[in-house]
Design goal:
The protein is of the alpha+beta class and 177 residues long. It has helices spanning 14-27, 35-42, 44-49, 84-89, 112-127, 144-151; strands at 5-8, 55-60, 66-73, 95-103, 132-137, 153-157, 169-172. β4, α5 and β5 form a beta-alpha-beta unit.
Length: 177
């Protein structure tokens, strides 16, 4: 049986990566495609392959299909919709934001997300220009919040804010966790 492979996405991987991402936002998030949140999903090549400071990783399953994704870009959290203090703490250009760390349900619990995060962090360190690694997650997605808590520190849990904000949990991940 062939092992899983984690590697930088190539142009011929983009359709498979897009499918994993879209399936996740429809199935796990229940939001479907929302242009202001998911524009990178439509054109992951422009979002992640066109800049040397961005990357998109894919997990290739034993059958040769894309079964997972993990991305990093140099955009910090935008205000709005995120609180101003968060945008100020994680400015674009200095912040590596982890995005789209998704694994198809039938391939979960095999360490793929952790392997992708390890490679994304190595990419951020090798870049030399990032001072922090940031991400946000929806705690309603099964397994997401405990996974990220195992790797980093929650810096803002919007569920604790007056009105609950967007209900999102924001994390900082140490570059050498």
């Amino acid at each position: 049986m062939r092992e899983y492979i984690i590697r930088p996405a190539r142009p011929d991987d983009l359709d498979g990566a897009r499918a994993v991402m879209l399936d996740t936002v429809y199935r796990d998030f229940g939001t479907g495609y929302v242009p202001r949140w998911h524009g990178d999903i439509v054109d992951p090549g422009a979002a992640y392959l066109a800049s040397g400071r961005h990357t998109l990783l894919v997990a290739i399953g034993p059958d040769g299909e894309v079964v997972g994704t993990g991305a990093l870009d140099s955009r910090g959290p935008a205000h709005p919709p995120n609180p101003r203090h968060l945008a100020d703490r994680y400015p674009s250009g200095e912040t590596a934001q982890l995005r789209r760390v998704y694994v198809r349900p039938e391939h979960r619990r095999r360490g793929l997300a952790r392997r992708m995060v390890d490679e994304l962090l190595a990419f951020a360190v090798a870049d030399g220009g990032y001072r922090s690694v940031y991400l946000h997650t929806d705690p309603a997605v099964p397994g997401a919040e405990p996974f990220w808590r195992s790797l980093g520190k929650a810096v803002l849990d919007e569920r604790d804010e007056p009105g609950g904000g967007q209900g999102i949990v924001h994390f900082e991940i140490p570059m050498g966790y």
